[in-house]
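Work Package 3 (structural annotation) set out to generate three-dimensional models for the target panel prioritized at the project kickoff. During this period the team completed the workflow that converts sequence records into discrete structure tokens, so that structures can be stored uniformly alongside our sequence database. As a representative example, we reproduce one entry of 341 residues exactly as it appears in the project archive.
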Amino acid sequence: MAGMTSCGSSDPVLLAPEDLEDLCVRALEAVGARTGAAHSLARATVAAEERGRAEVGAVHLLDYLDALRAGRLDGTARPRVVTARAGALSVDAANGTAQAAFDLVSDDLGRRARDCGIALLSIHRCFTAGEIGHYTTRIAEQGLVAIAGSNSPALLSAFGAKTAVTGTNPLSFALPHPEGPRMFDQAASATAWVNIRDAADRGEQIPEGWAIDPDGDPTTDAAAGLAGALLPFGGAKAGNIAFMIELLAAISGGSFSLEAPAFDSGDEPPQVGLFALAIDPTAFDPDFTHRAEAHLQRVAAEHGADFGRCKERRAQIAVPAHVFDTLTRTAAADRSEEGTS
């Protein structure tokens, strides 16, 4: 790969975005993903890395590869539109990725929002959705205001429950901007589940307030937190948000979080959901985007508060060595099979 650099066997491997995307596509195809689905997921993976969201980037792609091998994710699934009204779209992901289902209708969603002023997309029977900011960013790049959320298998305690009762259920919002949308993406949990998993893998402690153990008691033991449940970032308020997102994500038939099988083990697909709301601001005020940007610039200049700040995309992506090695071995296995077929 022309864009690859590394200083040592354990050092991160620096890749150009296009090289990482190609590697991700080949690895996904090697474990059974059809070409279109592989490209959709690889593009989303690289976009997360470019935005600095490594926890839902290349390292998270390993979860997708494992799910494809185990059958929790159907790499050959072809999403289909189930319902189409003037301002509403419902898509069955057929146990495939939310990214492929979104790509199927993203342009159509934008057209419906411009025609009606607002349009809602609901995706059901999908694998966990990855970086939710990917979906709002894509919508905002069409000049639309975007809100999106998805649910996950139950990982989060809420309202004093001793066990997980809902998902981490991330929410994202994005505003159009000529230099790239202003966007935020945050889960209802105090931290991402993958951060606790990574801490457990390293044998590290986690901060107080991140998780409870299997007995429902607060813990700083990452392994105990994985066996127990994550905690919401703001007590009952974040619990309310988590359930709101879950109910909206499941509106067209996605599994509720308590019903959804685990995304990281077993062979049953989680079949969760995702919603994305697209709003054409010109339906309400043709000058809204300019007013909003002027307001946010003033807030940043006068108070140092930069909401949804546009981050410069990274020209090179640092991929952990073990992730690069896994992707390379997986992709190479595919080429080896091609050579003997």
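The first helix runs from residue 17 to 30.
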